[in-house]
Amino acid sequence: MDVRKTKHYYDVSAGDQVCTCDYCRNYVKEIRHAYPELSEYLETMGINIEKPFETMPIEPDESGHITDIGSQYVVMGDPSEFQETDISGVHIGIADSHPMTDLQEEHFVLEVSEVDLKWTIGQDTQKDNGA
Hints:
Elements: H1 3-12, H2 22-34, H3 36-43, E1 54-57, E2 65-76, E3 85-87, E4 90-94, E5 107-113, E6 115-118, H4 123-128
Antiparallel strand pairs: 1-2, 2-5, 2-6, 3-4, 4-5
């Protein structure tokens, strides 16, 4: 793994790729607060938890939560240096499949599975509309 190149990727490129759908906006808004230890762990590899490469949410439930069955992050460097682990009840491993990254440098994609987040997108809009 190349922490410096990974951090540079997130500082320069990854922000342009973050989806703006409600699911991804909710993920970005809630993930760091809901999983601070996971965030700290990913930061040791140069990963910004608020800039996922891919997310795989299911629909929000009646209790106001949404489960993301897999969130993916790009890591620059050699994947042989990475060891799977579990942090805060979340598994972190190398993704078996993912969208094309279009990166030429050596890299791999981590998958974080699964996370449970509060569904908060739209609540401000509902309040503003008198709901």
